[in-house]
Design brief:
This protein is of the alpha/beta class. 36% of the residues lie in helices and 14% in strands. Bound molecules: phosphoric acid mono(formamide)ester.
């Protein structure tokens, strides 16, 4: 695997899972693989889990790590070609990216949706500039439309906790005060369908995700109906994805906040969320602190998914 931007890059899912469980038993089994290799992690946006887990994954593989926070201490970057650079941006991404490639062997990029232009976001303009111009293998640490390292970790977590071969996995929209990207729900839908689960997505009208990511999942607008018999509930907010309302908040209905009322109709479901989470907006205190909450095991598995992905990239060098 040279680049990792989605589930399509990971190859055989069962082999990826086998490697994840192998690494979980012995995180340092491949510590020689990354010797004298350098990972550059480039952050255009904030992070807690991705930053720590990916750095730890690189250390598991014996790599050196450089972290660049583009908005703190680096030159402000222009991303549009053809712009007369007479403003506050001192450097163009088209020089900065190949320069970054000179100092490392692998690049991880975090670049969220900007909500300025849907086409730019959905074409993954920033991530693709790294792929096209860095000369290095590139992996997504959450881009405009996907967060595959998170979904890989979520999938590992479900495999570790499921009690039936094909669990019912329900992803539910829940309210949030800010406009959030569709990256996590897009990826989660895609990975869960690829895993062969019974996947249901529930959200108010207007929050339909791009069918490119949700094909194979059922859409149910009645949240209570969607939750019936579910084995796993994945809470998440996202803003509107449609071209007409892209990035807008269309609904603030707090009855969608996931609490005991909804969990009571499930098959004693586990609760999942990628974190960070707004308590009592997305999920109540009781549910997230309850015995069926998997939010910490999911976060722990971020180290495992990142180690597998980096291992696969290093093996391709
Ligand atoms: N889930 C996740 O990616 O967390 P961070 O934004 O803190 O990295």
């Amino acid at each position: 695997m040279r680049h990792f931007t989605g589930v399509q890059d990971i190859g055989d899912l069962h082999e990826a899972l086998r490697q994840a469980l192998e690494i979980k038993k012995d995180r340092f089994k491949y510590v020689e693989l990354g010797r004298n290799k350098t990972l550059l992690m480039v952050f255009f946006n904030s992070s807690l889990r991705t930053r720590l887990s990916t750095q730890k994954a690189a250390m598991n593989l014996g790599m050196n790590v450089i972290v660049l926070d583009v908005n703190q201490g680096a030159w402000k970057l222009e991303t549009e070609r053809g712009v007369i650079m007479d403003g506050d941006k001192s450097e163009h991404l088209l020089e900065a990216v190949p320069v970054m490639g000179c100092y490392c062997d692998v690049i991880g990029v975090r670049s969220f949706a900007r909500f300025e232009n849907r086409a730019d976001d959905y074409e993954e303009k920033i991530l693709n500039q790294f792929i096209n111009y860095s000369g290095r293998p590139v992996f997504s640490m959450e881009a405009a439309t996907g967060h595959p390292l998170q979904s890989f970790a979520d999938w590992i977590t479900i495999e570790e906790h499921k009690t039936v071969v094909r669990p019912k996995v329900v992803m539910s929209w829940a309210p949030h005060p800010k406009s959030l990207p569709q990256a996590v729900p897009n990826s989660f839908a895609q990975w869960m369908v690829a895993a062969g689960y019974d996947v249901v997505i529930t959200h108010p009208h207007g929050y339909e995700l791009d069918t490119k990511f949700t094909a194979g999942a059922r859409i149910e607008y009645d949240q209570m109906k969607a939750f019936e018999g579910a084995d796993f509930i994945y809470g998440k907010n996202w803003s509107a994805a449609s071209p007409e309302h892209y990035g807008q908040i269309l609904n603030t209905d707090r009855s969608w906040t996931i609490g005991e009322r909804q969990m009571a109709v499930t098959n004693n479901a586990y609760f999942m969320h990628c974190l960070p989470v707004r308590r009592n907006m997305i999920v109540t205190d009781d549910v997230i602190e309850g015995p069926r909450s998997l939010v910490i095991p999911e976060a722990a598995n971020r180290e495992i998914s990142a180690t597998v992905v980096l291992k696969m990239i290093l093996e391709s060098l």
